[in-house]
UniProtKB/TrEMBL annotation:
Region Disordered, residue ranges: 309-337
GO cellular component: a single term: actin filament
Keyword Cytoplasm: no
InterPro entries: FH2_Formin (IPR015425), FH2_Formin_sf (IPR042201), Formin_Homology_Diaphanous_sf (IPR051412)
Positions with biased composition (Basic and acidic residues): 309-334
Stored Pfam families: FH2 (PF02181)
Protein's UniProt name: FH2 domain-containing protein
One GO-annotated biological process of the protein: actin filament polymerization
Keywords: Coiled coil
Entry annotated with the keyword Plastid: no
Length: 359
């Protein structure tokens, strides 16, 4: 009981000792500082020297998260002479307050630590779209698929206002599965796949030609542009910070960023050329939608090929079963005929024998 009272008194004492920080900020900062047990001057040194070997990403993130506002740090700096009488969180505030432009410095350090990860997150998306654009434009097999779809469509629409069309929207490819046969067992997509398998087997290669459309369909062009602009903003800020404090050279980061920009510009050119080639309105179709349609059609076509194979296998199984039944029926009929012939012979022999007895 006495221990609890002493603890409460001690707590009140610590709270009273706070000169600037409120209790919640002080408590969170105290927990953070206690998590890696390092002298405050050492933390200050690491930040001043931008010691990337010691400054890990989680450490910087937590420091930024729990760092008091600059106004509070400025207020704490005035208590430097009363350092020994301050609580630990405020002692840390006094030490770290001497670092000029502390928060921008920490944000710059964090940006550098995260830069490689950001590049690795952005680059694959740009590359996927670039490669997918090239695949669609250069695939002769895919062009042949489009010719066959147009031919089938014009044949089906003969006599209507859509007869003899010169083209169709790429998004219509996914609608082939919606046109079903009279018995509702197959679709126009199954028919297309069957035509390709039986008469134009080389066309089936388009599935392998368009390997990157699925990855490209998961890329948001809007997010790519937003992330690149944010990266540029942070790099410019880092260059500005280099003028006011010593930090590791960012020339390599800027070089990687410029390469990303070139790749992104190339992506824009390739995508625009693709839209023009297929007469697609860029205002109506996004990157995700275009490659999403291509990815879905590719997947549905592969599924149709598999289903055609299963159907042929089932039909062949039924044919063999039917042939086996017919063979069994013929053998049965043949046995019955033999039996009848044998009975007829026996009857004739019996008749002759009886006639001989009469004579």
């Amino acid at each position: 009981m006495e221990d609890e009272q002493e603890e409460k008194k001690s707590m009140k004492k610590r709270i009273k000792e706070l000169k600037v920080l409120d209790s919640k900020i002080a408590q969170n900062l105290s927990i953070f500082l206690g998590s890696f047990r390092m002298p405050y001057e050492e933390i200050k040194r690491m930040v001043l020297e931008v010691d990337e070997e010691q400054l890990t990403e989680p450490l910087i993130q937590n420091l930024v998260k729990h760092l008091p506002e600059q106004e509070q740090l400025n207020a704490l700096a005035k208590y430097k002479s009363d350092y020994a009488n301050l609580s630990e969180p405020e002692q840390f505030g006094v030490v770290i307050s001497s670092v000029k432009r502390l928060r921008p410095r920490l944000n710059s350090i964090l940006f550098k630590l995260q830069f490689e990860e950001q590049v690795n997150n952005i680059r694959p998306g740009i590359m996927a779209v670039n490669v997918a654009c090239e695949e669609i434009r250069k695939s002769r097999s895919f062009s042949k698929v489009l010719e066959l779809v147009l031919l089938i469509g014009n044949y089906m629409n003969a006599g209507s206002r859509n007869a003899q069309s010169y083209g169709f929207e790429l998004g219509s490819l996914c609608k082939l599965k919606d046109t079903k046969s009279a018995d509702q067992t197959t679709t126009l997509l199954h028919f297309l796949a069957e035509i390709c398998e039986e008469q134009f087997p080389e066309v089936l290669r388009f599935v392998e030609d368009l390997q990157h459309v699925d990855k490209a369909s998961r890329v948001s062009a809007e997010n790519l542009e937003k992330n690149l602009k944010q990266m540029e903003k942070q790099l410019l800020q880092l260059e500005k910070d280099l003028e006011t404090f010593s930090a590791p050279d960012d020339s390599r980061d800027m070089e990687q960023y410029q390469k990303l920009v070139i790749m992104h510009n190339n992506m824009g050119t390739l995508y625009q050329n693709l839209l023009e080639y297929f007469a697609i309105d860029p205002k109506k179709t996004s990157v995700e939608e275009l490659f999403g349609d291509m990815s879905n059609f590719r997947s549905m076509f592969m599924q149709a090929v598999k289903e055609n194979a299963k159907r042929r296998e089932a039909e062949e199984k039924q044919r063999r079963a039917r042939a086996a039944r017919e063979k069994a029926e013929l053998e049965k009929q043949e046995r019955q005929k033999k039996k009848k012939r044998l009975l007829d012979v026996n009857a004739e022999v019996l008749y002759i024998s009886m006639m001989c007895l009469v004579v």
